[in-house]
Specification:
The radius of gyration is 28 Å and the shape is globular. It has a seven-stranded parallel β-sheet, sandwiched between helices. A six-stranded parallel β-sheet has the order 10-15-14-11-13-12. A four-stranded mixed β-sheet has the order 17-16-19-18, with helices on both faces. Helix 2 runs antiparallel to helix 3, helix 12 runs antiparallel to helix 14 (282-297) and helix 13 (249-264) packs parallel to helix 14 (282-297). It is of the alpha/beta class and 748 residues long. Helix 16 links the parallel strand 5 and strand 6 (355-359). It contains 31 helices and 21 strands. The chain has four domains: 2-213, Hypothetical protein af1432; 229-444, 3-Layer(aba) Sandwich (Rossmann fold), CATH 3.40.50.300; 449-608, 3-Layer(aba) Sandwich (Rossmann fold), CATH 3.40.50; 658-734, no CATH class.
Length: 748
Amino acid sequence: MMALLSLCVSAIIESMEIENTNQKDVYAHSREDASRESWQSLADHAMKVARLASSFADPFKSGKWTELLGRIHDWGKARRSFQSYLAHANGLTDVDYDASDHSHSGAGASWAVQKFGPPGRILAYCVAGHHAGLPDWIGGATPNGALAVRLETEKGVLEERSVQEWISAHGKDCVLPGPPFRFPPNGIGLSLWIRMLYSCLVDADFLDTEAFMDAKRGEQRGIYPQLGELEKAFFAKLDSKQAEAPDTEVNRIRAEIRAACEHVAEETPGLFSLTVPTGGGKTLSAMAFAFRHARKFGKKRIIYVIPYTSIIEQTADTLRRFLGTENVLEHHSNFDPAKETQQSRLASENWDAPVIVTTTVQFFESLYACKSSRCRKLHNIAESVVILDEVQLLPTKLLKPCTAAIGELAAHYGTTFVLSTATQPSLPGLEGIREIIPPSFDLYARLKRTEYEWPRDRTVRKTWGQVAAELARYDQVLCVVNTRKDCRELYNFMPEGTVHLSASMCGEHRSRVISSIKERLARGEPVRVVSTQLVEAGVDIDFPVVYRAFAGLASIAQSAGRCNREGKLAAPGRVVVFMPPKESPRGELRSGEYATGDLLNMKDAPALESAEVFPLYFQKLQSRAHTLGEEFGDWLVKDAPSCQFQFREAAEAFKMIDAGSVPVLVRYGGDGPLIEELRKAGPKRMIMRKLQRYTVTVPQGLIHDLLQKGFIEEMHPGVYVQTLESLYSDAFGLDIYRESLTAEESVV
């Protein structure tokens, strides 16, 4: 690609002034029931979008590219048919115009390729897709919408007299800039850059259109305080919290970790790791790093990325206590719309906020997305500090494209990453990662608060009855198992009063149960919990005894982090690893088990509770993986030299959540009226957002069976709703694993 781009002259588009030509009556947008005099001209819209898009891309040296995109993106609106469409849409008549075909996004794309050859395809992807999304180069799910096809079909539009006149007046000084930096040969970097250009264009187009069509809405954007103001509030409360904390060994270590984070924050931007055992205060220390680093190097925002929706609310609530409710944007599928304001709703569209808390799914799927709504925010990741919490949970099947994106953002977009974890994984392709905590801190030894008990003979498996009998000996105990079905089966053997926790429960239900567990623990009451691994990462609970079904070493360590978390016990907490009745389902869970077994079989392996063991564990895990994401070469790498990308196919393939599950709306709590509203109004966006907290994913293979039995209904195409009231219980959630049902294995 570099060779192709080097053939083009690198130049600056020197002027953004639009000539006063006879195209002054060509319009981009109209207002209903308003005269043409109040409409927005195409020249005005192009100029404003170009300027705004340029400012978005300046941090990654691409402002001249997006300036050009802004100028040409709506050239198709110069068509007589489009102007006729505007007139007819607003009750005006013009018999001379034909509004049968008023498409407009292909004209600038076709012109760019005709003008600049193959490098012009970079512009063409963005322009052709600025409404419908980045297209594939050829074929794919929508072959007629492929860019190669559209470039041919749109040639006729360029020949229309009105378009030719417009291009003659406004395109004569358009020059293709040179490349802003060197792209790696794997194609990932070039495709990400195109998405970034696309993000700048889409956001600028949305914002200028909004300013014209709905000025009041536009005025509510960008009213957040600057990071510098939030920094003062954050450290004032952090200092107060630290001063009031009991003088314990754990709290002294937490203070040391914070100090190290603030010290290293002065180092040049790039890749950092924060490896701290669970309970070491990673959340607030990582934020301390982020604020100091942002001030030192002028970073625009802090993005806190969390793997599970089950813990994102906990983290967001913590940050709100330090920064103020209105200053933390929480953006994920499980967010409660009742907490949403107009300001946060607008900011979630493009992440125009100083502090953002989001999920790993939202962050990485957006980086490989093709839809305008998902890509719009991407340019605001540039010049940010991104904290990737529990980075060891990046899915093995997508590890390489994830790390490739991290590397590109750090190298070319001014993004600093903090890779935060208790079990630092092996991250292929990432070099130059600086560890914040020096080895001299010896955190794993100093924060050791538990003793592990490993199974003596891994060929001997326990029954759930045997496990339950052991758990019943304790008043306060947590048992973590590998699947929802396992959780249900173990619960059947447990004493009355035991708490079940799994993803069979909707988000609202899980939040209430976790809060109840915390309250009972705080009061010193008896509480026995059986849970899937959703409780492992980041859920702030503290048990004296934790049982863990044999699993991957990282998962076992995370479960152990829920044991004696605050170090208040006189003796170490007890972590018991046991062999469950059967192996985990095939996939990452079973691979993790086997990798742990490999370590246990090694004579010279590091201690399984040491920091040194985890890179070795992850190497073994990755060696067992079917893929680390290499198949992305088929869509983003293979034909990169000729700028032929399959953006839609790549976006469809990059799914961090298994597509084998289907969401079902459940009848829990106060969602009944919402479901009836759904029945009457259909799956409108706001209704579905409100219902997101009342969904449970069900294995695809079970859906047909549940429909046949009348347990659920397909209320609207692809929208499934619980109908059998008893199917959802306060104890289990959506009880698909009771004996009367035939269920497939499910892992979360």
